[in-house]
Amino acid sequence: MSAACRNGAARSCARIGGLGSATSHPAASCRRWQARRASPREAGVARGRCAAVLKGNPVGSPSLSLDLDKVRDALIRMEDSIIFAIIERSQFLRNDKVYEPGAIPVPGYNLKTGDQQSMVEYILRQTEQMHGMIRRYTSPDEHAFFPEDLPSLVLPPIEYPSLLHPHAEGININDQVRALYFEELLPRICEEGDDGNYGSSALCDITLLQALSKRIHYGKYVAESKYKASPDTYDPLIRAKDEAGIMNLLTVESVERRVVRRVRNKACVFGQDIQDVMGTISLAQEDIEQAESKVEPEKVAKLYNDWIMPLNKQVQLEYLLHRLD
Amino acid sequence: MSAACRNGAARSCARIGGLGSATSHPAASCRRWQARRASPREAGVARGRCAAVLKGNPVGSPSLSLDLDKVRDALIRMEDSIIFAIIERSQFLRNDKVYEPGAIPVPGYNLKTGDQQSMVEYILRQTEQMHGMIRRYTSPDEHAFFPEDLPSLVLPPIEYPSLLHPHAEGININDQVRALYFEELLPRICEEGDDGNYGSSALCDITLLQALSKRIHYGKYVAESKYKASPDTYDPLIRAKDEAGIMNLLTVESVERRVVRRVRNKACVFGQDIQDVMGTISLAQEDIEQAESKVEPEKVAKLYNDWIMPLNKQVQLEYLLHRLD
């Protein structure tokens, strides 16, 4: 990763809790929260064997930068998180009871209707309470599924640089993300049936929902960076409220095809049963079709093509329509 | 996956909340918790395109079965979760402030010492409160990091089949898991520095800590299944409290070497930057050494070899030493 890129990530996303330049004493801290019992016998041998050197280009979670390269890197990195989370959820059966209000007697009820919440709704609400307290939803690239119920902060708030038009704050299509997830995604990634792993399934659901929400709402940054690159092209369409015209500008089919191919390849590679001895993994079409995978690459690619990218573009469109307000 | 295996997973791990055979109305449930707004335009096109068919052999999370094949499948599946979680954490810098008591003003203090908790301790405690309420730690293959502080259940308890010797319940080496994580693992998987992603880093830490804890404590099932396969070999050693003798029986170097090679391959494959067009991924030694990866495969393999497997064997030893009590 370039210094610039890392920097972008840095600036960005104190997201669930940056505190700027408070003094830090890492060594002390680590020791304090560590070994209260002896470490394994191999400790002496292991220590010092590997230095902390990393190859590759890790990308911070979506930065609040509008640099097009950084936006692109962040989107690509989010694909990995989404596919990892899909594979994690797919190890369990569908477990419909998790999604059925009243099937599992959670202590959560809708104030207006009196209906008992489903287990996944209960755990998602609890999770948002916990993450909300530590500032998750004060970050402009995080969006709650129950924004009306967020708790008070237990940490002092962070000021984020305002890179987006103020209208961005009001855009939250998590109802649609939820619909996408439960109607389209879940039935395609899990085998039908009930294996009793209700809590584990719900926790995987929540990780995946949060990853999808972040990817989809990142459309705000995509849109702003596209707008900044050529305001004169967008301005007349925005003034005319020409949704089709804007959507047309936002759509670059060759790029979308590349994303879908890359996602297919990722699902194929990450979903493989890796052995201790193996030579190569082939990404040729016919080999992918033959390969055993924990998820079906073509289906994950299709979900991206038919749902995730369109919802991302919907966020872009909603953002741009009010860009001149 | 064989029917038997899926079955094992099913029996097992209602772990954070199986409820047995309560009546379920999945369709109703799904609709209730879904779309409150229209889905994307592509809905009509997408719907019905992909049937819910899965290839491959998804393995449920560690079953409570003692069948050796199922134990092995569960251990292999846990490797994937651990490596995914390592890759997720490695996208952020080290962020030492997260681990330093007082560096981030979380509202959590040690009752005895008066010390403020570190951010990661605070969030881990909060997470265990939430997961504890929904029965996570009533499952015999889950182990809390703060078992003395678990909350009351908000759901009726589940009775698990007792496959292990009662002594198993008292074995919890999460203090050592924590030490392994903060002293050995974190410094090797993250670049030094501070990118401000404190909350995100802590959430990744917790996912990874939980995955490591599950893998390491699964030694209880490994030990019981080995014991069941040849009690006559173990009994005299157990009676003599012959730790070295037991450890010798538990250690099959050829198997351990295979695990380490497989983990190396997984870290290599899952850590790759996958492109939209690529032919094959090579797992030959010299290619792995050249490849750019989000984590260093040899390092992850070494962590497995030097730390994760030894701690797992320590659990096995502790379990077996009291197998005849």
From TrEMBL, chains A, B:
GO terms for biological process: amino acid biosynthetic process; aromatic amino acid family biosynthetic process; chorismate metabolic process. It is found in: Cytoplasm. One of its GO terms (cellular component) is cytoplasm. One of its GO terms (molecular function) is chorismate mutase activity. It catalyses: chorismate = prephenate. Coiled coil: none annotated. The keyword Cytoplasm applies. Residues 201-316 form the Chorismate mutase domain. Pathway: Metabolic intermediate biosynthesis; prephenate biosynthesis; prephenate from chorismate: step 1/1. It is an enzyme of class 5 (isomerase). The keyword S-adenosyl-L-methionine does not apply. Keywords: Amino-acid biosynthesis, Aromatic amino acid biosynthesis, Cytoplasm, Isomerase. SUPFAM superfamilies: Chorismate mutase II. Its EC number is 5.4.99.5. Pfam families: CM_2. It comes from the Eukaryota. PROSITE patterns: CHORISMATE_MUT_3. Its main location: cytoplasm. InterPro entries: Chorismate_II_sf (IPR036263), Chorismate_mutase_AroQ_euk (IPR008238), CM_AroQ_sf_eucaryotic (IPR037039), CM_II_prokaryot (IPR002701). This is Chorismate mutase. It comes from Chloropicon roscoffensis.
